[in-house]
Structure formats: structure tokens, C-alpha cells
Amino acid sequence: MPTTLTSPFFQFHFYPDSGKFDLVPAGLHTCGFRGGQMRLEINQIGLRSTHALDRFETADAESSPNTVHGPLTTLQAVRILPDSGLKVKATFALSQSQPLFLWRIQIENDTQEALRIEKIEFLRVGGQEIFGAVDFPPHYSRPRWSFFSNGWQSWSPTGAYLNGEAMRISRLGFLQQPMIINHGTPTLRMPGYYTADFFGALADLSTKSGLLAGFLSQKQHFGSIEAVTMDRPSLAMFTTDGALLQPGARIETDWAVITPISTDDPDPFGIYLESVAREYGLTDQNFKPVPSGWCSWYHYYSNLSAQDIRKNLDAIHSMRDQLPLQLVQIDDGFETRVGDWFSFKPAFPDGVAPLAREIKDRGFTPGLWLAPFILNPRSDFVGRHPEVILRNRRGKPVNAGFGWNNLASAIDLTAPGAMELALEPVRRAVRDWGFPYLKLDFLYAAALPGLRHDPALTRAQVMRQGMEAIRAAVGADAYLVGCGLPLGSGVGLVDAMRVGADVNGSWEPEMKGIRFPFHKEPAMPSARNSLHNTLTRAPLHNRWWTNDPDCLLVRADSRLRLPEIQSLATAIGMTGGSLLLSDDLTGLPTERLQIARALLPVIGKRAEVLDLLEQTDPRRLRLPMHGPQGNWTVLAHFNWEDSPQPLTFNPANYHLPNAPCWISSFWDGKIFRYDPGTPFSLPPIPAHGVFLAAATSIEDESLPLYLGSNLHFSQGVEVKEWEVEGHKVSFTLNLRRQAEGLFHLSLPSDPMRVECVGVRLQWKSSGGGVYHFEVKLDQTARIHIEYG
Fold first, then answer.
1. What percentage of the chain's residues is helix, strand, coil (to nearest 5)?
2. Could you tell me the pTM of the whole model?
């Protein structure tokens, strides 16, 4: 007989003799599984063996009313493996307040010898055993599978795979795969075979339902998810960190989690993402203001000098009334080699500390790039400290991927003295040189596989301990940006996290101007790859950290066309993350600077990605807004194709009511009226471009409406007050910067008097009751309009 746990969302049945378990949906939820099985793979005296976890002894179910995830009903089951002497305890839990099924595994070594835990399999289920998402109504002849794969670290490809397409996996082999693929997560190239790290989601688009499978943290292990969608679906969850378990020692995994999802939900991963935040103890007080600033990398790269920093600092200071940036960040290029952080290039004769003082004295936050866990093999550090280099079984340095024209090396943070050596540049940068903002790069190197001094620690534990040590070294006030960092290792420790590949001045990846064979690489620097992950990881923003979508490039002399720059700007603005420019600001024309100005102030709100599970490359975003003038919705529709694409406005595509509304297109300044049943055409979206618009409902034709402006991409955040009295509307515009441009109103009749601080404003009509007004803001402007 099974032991049963119940909640308003699930019934959980555990069969002690077989070790199998069922998760049966209840209420409105429709997805679950039957016959889930756990397994353990160990290496004992050089012999590898697999053990099905069965024949458990169970205790009575218990209630835990005061956990961070609300009241839980829990069940514990214990199994002693007779051949290995391992004691395995599984703890299962159902939340009573949310649709969460949780379980974790504890392993204790009761033998007299050490053994290696090669693999812990939390779940393997498939075929007829998964139900809900595969119990189709009769009129569905074929399922339409979608699997959302989250990548291991910042640059790793993330997004949905549809109808059996193959995963996007780098073909650069040892040059790149150590960077972006977790050791132990299979690299599956067969169509319909998928993996994910930390979390993944399997859904059927026909029934619009599915399951998210993941882990609530990665403090103990890097958890992987595997799914197959050929014929009948299967799902597996496991860890492969391979730690050595000493006699008498025990290890406990992070919580595994299953929760149902709906593809109709504009926030399908919300319950899971917020549960992860709770597990790490995050609250709104953990989030610092979203930064805006300038970074040296994407114009100067490593050919950088102190004079380059100073001349851009001068430009930023001179433009601060129109372009109020906060941060000036020095990127790679100041040090002689990566690892030799206290030896500076001739172009930085006095180091970087004087620059930090100059940046601060001009009223900006100084920022610095460091990569504390990775090494250029030609650095002096490697020669001075060979004892802390992470090595493989042949005694050779572990390959950390291709960088700085070499195969980079990594530090073994468990070696004596290694942690202190890695922390010293970080500590000195903040405390001695004066940089309270650090961009920490190539952090994955701490989690690479190798022969560590302490083999009892998992790679995830080493990675997490390294990040905890950095946070302790710099203090709570320092602003840390994680880059190239496994996601779970940074939650609660970094203030911002890079969520995608590097951007650069080309749409597709290339190397030294050569596109083939690099143009299809999914994680190499390019605008396309950066934009892709900016959208697919948008739901993480303001839940785990501030998203860092990488820099915005607006200069005209890159290989990016204007529509591609507008796509990057739209994604950065709508997804709410940090805004860093990375052009030489001393020579940018006004029209290019205006693209950046339109994103300031950063509003920091997270848009909903409406087709996150329905498109390989998401296309549709919505950002509901509210201000003194009422409610409006910012919409974006991206064109990933290499040719212009037609666009027909359908309110349902953006979760809007089928009712009259105004559509104000931002990048071209055109305004359209939508009335149900009355067709109208929108201009085609340029290749790699975007349609960015504000939709404002028409509820009363007799009242004025604010339709938008070209002052800010949100087309409304600039409105701070709004008063309507009789045939007069008065309002205040304030962007906390100087600006000039147009704002648009719908009025019942022609304006008779238009004033701004006693000065008459110019206006024109485009018909249909729509009027356009020229305005200049010196921080703020009070507008008075009398009409008919």
C-alpha cells in the first residue's frame, strides 16, 4: 500500500517496496506523473555500480507549518544499500499553499572506506507514466512539444525547443564547451533530446500545459534535467558532481522541485522563480538600484589606455544633464595579463586607483573588471603559484576554454592559500583602489572538473564558497556583477547577473571579420545571441538579481544596422535590467545619443515574454504601465528574420481586450487607431528590427488621452501629474534630465491654447483627433492645454 500526502494541488503516492512514486494533479492543475524512480550511481574501490532506490522504511507523515515555502506536509523514507553500506534518506514534501512538490536526498557513508558519489538520480519517468500533458483530447492527433532549456552559466544558450528540433550546441569543442556546458550535463545533438541546468520545462502546446522540473538552489550540486519528446515524453533529474564521501560523512542535496505550468500564463515560471528566491532568503530589500553607465570594452577592447578613460569621463560629465549616467567602468585591458592584477600595462602608468579617484571626484561611481578565478597560462601568477592550478588526472592544467589567444587555466580554490590569492585583487580593488562596483568575469572556472586538493567538495560547493568568500571580502555595500557564472552559485550574492552572451558590433557571430563557420554558434559574442538570452531570461530580473543584458552599442560605424540597434535598445529597456553604453562617447552624433537617452531613466520593470514557450526566439513582449494619466501597455514585437516581415495587430496576442485603443509606434513616431472589426495595416518590421509601441485604451471619447512621446521608450513614464477640468488638461513632464521632442495627445477638439511655463508650444494634427506637441524639458515642464 502506498503512503499518501495530499495538498490542494497534488496527491503524492509513495510505494516503499519499489521506491516508486506518483504525483497526481488535483484541482485546476492537469500535469503529473506515475512511477517516478530514484537511483544512485557510486564508485567503490574503482568499481562503478548503479542502485535503484527501493525497499524503503517510511515514517509517519508530518506537518511543518512554518517553512519559508509556507506549510509543508512531509514524508521521510530510509534505505540502507546492503552492498555498499550507504544509508539513503529521502524527504518528500507537498506545499499546502502553492503547487510545489519538493524532495531531497541525504546519503551517509557507514562503511570504513571512502567512495565516490558519481550520480544522484532524483527522477526518471517516461512513456505512459507521464500524464496530463500527454492525455490529449481526441481531436489532438499529434502533440506539439516544447522544452525550455536553461543554460548552465551566463553565456549558455537558453530558450525553448519546439517539435523535435535539435539543441543549439557549440561546435567549437574544447575551445568553448568547457566554458558554457556543465560537466556532467549531456550534450545531446539528436532531434527531440534535450538537457537543461538548474531548471527546465516540458510542455505540450496543444493542451497548453506542462511541468517545470528544477532545483531550489545550487549550493550543494549542479542539478541537470533531461527530456525526450520523441514518440512519448520522458523526464529525468540528476546531479553528477562526483564528490568523494569519506567514512562517517554525509551529504544532503538541494531540494528538487516539480510545479505545473501553463503556456497561456504570461509568467509561467513565476511560482518556481519566487520559490528559489525564498530558498536563498531574498526579499525586496536585497535589490539595489538598477545601474546605468559606461563600459570601456566594446569600443576599446583590450587596446585601452588611461587617457581613453579620461576623455570619455570628460564626455560623460559634459553630457550629464542630457545623459545622466551613474557609472564609469574600466574593463579588461589595464592589467599586463589576466592573473597579474597588480602589474599594469604601460598605458596605465599609475595603475587604476588614480582613475577611480577622478571618476568619484566627477560625481560618478568607479567600476572595474576582474576575473579572479581564471588565469592566462602565460601570466607570472602561474609561474609563481603552480601549486594552486587546477589539474587533470595527467597533472596538466585543466582546460578553461579559449581566451586571450590561449587555452586558459583555473585556480583550485580548495588548495592551501588559493582562496586568499583569488580574493586579494577583489579586496584591494574595493578597499584600496576605490572601486565599489566590480564586474567579475569568467567565474565558471572555479567549477570546472579536476583533481582538487579537497575531493570531498562538490564543484557546486566550491563555486558557492568562492562567491561567498568574495562577498565577505568586499562587504555588503559593494555592487557585484556576476558574469560567466553558474546561475545558482550567484543567487543572493551578486547584485546583477549577466544573462546572455557578449554583445558586439555584428548581428551574427564572427571572428576577425569571418562569419563562416561561426555564424550559427549559439554563445559566441554577437547582438543576436545577446538579445536572445536577454529575452529568454527576462523572468529572472528583480527575482534573483538585476539582470545584466550587456552593453548597448549605438554608434554608426559598427556592423549593426539601425533596426538591430533599436532591437537591442528595446529589449534592454523593456526587460528592466542595467543599462551600460560602450561606445566612444566623444564623437557620437546627436541622433545616436538619442537612442540611449530614450532609455533614461531606467525604469527597472520586468516585461512579460508572452511566447516564451511557443517560440525558439521570443517575439512578443508586454509591459503593463500605470501613471497619473491612467493605464497603458508597452508592446514589442521582434523580427528575427533576415527580411522585413508584415505585422497585423491582434490585441489577443498581447493579452489585451478586443476594444478600441490607440497604438503609438515609438521608433517611427506613427500613431494608429484600432477598432474591433476595422482592419488597418502596420508597417512591416525591418529585418532584425522591432515594433515598439504604447497601447492606450479608449474608454471615453470626450476625455483627453496621453498617447505617448519620443522622449522615453515607455511613452508615459515622463508624466508625473495629470489634471482634467472642463475643456482644459494640465500635466507635468519630468525625466530628471534635459530633453526635447514630441508628445502626443488625443483631444475631443482642436487645441485653442497650449503653454509650457508661459511659453506657447508648437503643435500639429495628424487627423482623427490626434495632436503632436513640441516640447523642451529642463528636468521638468508644466503643460496647460485648452481645447474647443
1. 15, 35, 45
2. 0.96
